[in-house]
Amino acid sequence: MSKVVKFGGSSLASAEQFQKVGKIIRADKERRFVVPSAPGKRNKSDTKVTDMLYSCYDLAEQGGNFTIQLLAIQDRYNEIIHGLGLKISLDEEFEKIEKQFRAKAGKDYAASRGEYLNGIVMANYLGYDFIDAATVIFFDENGNFDADKTNEVLSKELAGHKNAVIPGFYGSMPDGSVKTFSRGGSDVTGSIVAKAAKVDVYENWTDVSGFLIADPRIINNPVGIDTITYRELRELSYMGAGVLHEDAIFPVRQQGIPINIRNTNAPEDNGTWIVGSTCQKSKYVITGIAGKKGFCAINIEKDMMNSEIGFGRKVLQAFEENGISFEHVPSGIDTLTVFVHQDEFMHLEQKVVAGINRLAKPDTIDIEADLALIAVVGRGMKSTRGTAGRIFSALAHANVNVRMIDQGSSELNIIIGVANDDFEAAIKAIYDIFVLTKL
Ligand code: ASP
Predict the structure, then answer these.
(1) Which atom of ligand 1 is nearest to the CA of 38?
(2) For a surface tag, which of 88, 161, 221, 352 has the fewest beta carbons within 10 Å of its beta carbon?
C-alpha cells in the first residue's frame, strides 16, 4: 500500500501547521509522496503567498521596485524555517527569483515559486527527496496538460524514490518555461502523482473534514458526506460546491484510485471518500445539494413545434453563433426553454433573439432573468420512490415557486429552477425534508 498526500495552503501557512503535517505524514509509512501547496493564510486578514507573488511580479513587470514585496515573501518562508528549527537558507533561491523577475520570466513562473520553495522546505523538514515539478509535469505547445508524457516520465522518476516531495500547481512547457494549472491546481498535481505512482489512496488534506451536504453559508452546521461517487461529485462541483479543483478528478478516476478528503486540524476525522462506485448507501437518499444564482431562461413558443424536425437545432444554433453555452433545455409540446448564464447572455441578448427569429421563426420569445438553479444529487434516488415528490412538497410548504424541473437521464440528480430570491429558502427546505426530517 502507498499513498499520495496533498496539503493545501492553510495546512502549510505557518511552522505550527507544518508540524501538524509532519505528524500526519510520520504516523503512516504509506504516505510516501507529498504534494504541497504554497503557504496560505494564517488568519482571515492574511494574504496567500501565491497572491503575494502575483502582485510582486506585477510590480516587476511594470518596471517598479519590488524589493520590499519580495522580502515580505521571503519572511513568510523564514518564519517557517526558523519555527521548525531547520538549517536551510533560501537566500540563493531568492536571488535567482529576483533576477528572473527582472528578466520578466512570466506570471506563471512567479506564481509557481510559492509551491517550489515550499517543496524545498517540506523535503528538508521530512528528510524526503525533492523533485522539481518542472522536470516531471508537462504541458504541450498549446498549454494543455500533456498526460501521456507526464505519466511516462513521472512514473519512471517516482520509481527511483522511496519518499519524495513534488510541489503542486506547476509544470513546464516544451520550451522549458514554467506553466501553472489554474488556481487551486495543486489538487490536480496530487491526482497526477497518484496516478503515476499507482498508489492505493490519494489523500487530500485541507482545513475542513470533507464535503458537506449543503453550503454552510446557507445551512447552519450541515451534515458531512461520508462517501460520494465521482459522478455525484462532478454534478455537485459543476453546480458550485467547491473544495476540490474540478480537474483533479480525472487522472485518479481513470485508475480507480479513491480520494480521501481530510482535515489537517482534525486528523482523527474520517473525512469524505470519493470513489468510483460503492454499495454504501448515502444516509439520506440525497448525497448533496448545490446551486448557482444568475441564470436567464429564454422561453420559445411555436405552434406544432413538436412535429417540426430540426427546430431545437436551429434555436441552439443562435446561441452557438454568439458563443454562448447553454445549461439546460427543458421542453414541452410547443415550448422550449434555454437556460443560460445571465452574465454571458445579457450583452448579446438582442443578437441571440434576432438569431432565433431568423433561424427558427418562433411565434413568441420571452426572456426571464434572475433565476437560480439547484441540483439535488444522490445515487440513492434511482432506487427510492417519491424523491421528487418530497422535494416539491417541501418547496410548496416553503412558498417557493418552482419554475423549472429537469431530471438528469442518469437519475442521479434533479435540477430545479427558482427565482434568485427563493434560492436560500429552497435549499433550506430541501435540506430539512431529507436530512432533518429523515423520513
Ligand atoms: N497556490 C495555488 C493557489 O493559491 C495553488 C494551490 O494552492 O493549489 O491557487
Answers:
(1) 1
(2) 221
Helices (H), 277-386: 311-321, 342-345, 349-360
pLDDT tens string 105-157: 999 999 999 999 999 999 999 999 999 999 999 999 999 999 999 999 999 99
Fold classification of 3-207 (topology level): Carbamate kinase (3.40.1160)
* pLDDT tier for residue 238 given thresholds of 50, 70 and 90: confident
**37 Cα to the center of ligand 1, angstroms:** 6
Using 50, 70 and 90 to split pLDDT, how confident is the model at 241? Answer: low
Most informative mutation of 48, 207, 246 for ligand 1 (most atoms within 8 A of CB): 48
- Give the number of the atom of ligand 1 that is nearest the alpha carbon of residue 9: 7
| Ligand 1 atom nearest 37 alpha carbon | 7
For residue 354, the model assigns a pLDDT of 97
Across the chain, mean pLDDT equals 94
Residue 359, pLDDT > 70, answer yes
**CA distance linking residue 35 with residue 168, whole number of Å:** 6
- Please give the number of the atom of ligand 1 that sits closest to the Cα of 114: 1
Q: Where are the domains of the chain?
A: 3-207, 288-438
Ligand 1 interacting residues, C-beta cut-off 6 A: 9, 37-38, 48, 50, 114, 168-169, 183-187
- Name, in order, each residue with C-beta under 8 angstroms of 190's C-beta and a sequence gap of 6 or more: 4, 5, 6, 35, 168, 202, 204, 248
Measured in Å, residue 40 CA sits from the centre of ligand 1 at 8
What distance in angstroms lies between residue 54's CA and the mean position of ligand 1's atoms?
12
Question: Does residue 129 sit in helix, strand or coil?
Answer: strand
398 C-alpha to center of ligand 1: Å?
A: 40
CA of 9 to the centre of ligand 1 (A): 7
- Among 3.30.2130.10, 3.50.50.60, 3.40.30.10, 3.40.50.300, name the CATH number for the domain at 288-438: 3.30.2130.10
For residue 78, list its beta bridge partners. Answer: none
Looking at ligand 1, which atom is closest to the CA of residue 182? 9
Asked if residues 205 and 220 have their Cβ atoms less than 8 Å apart, the reply is no
Quick check: 381 and 311 in contact, CB under 8 A? no
pTM greater than 0.85? yes
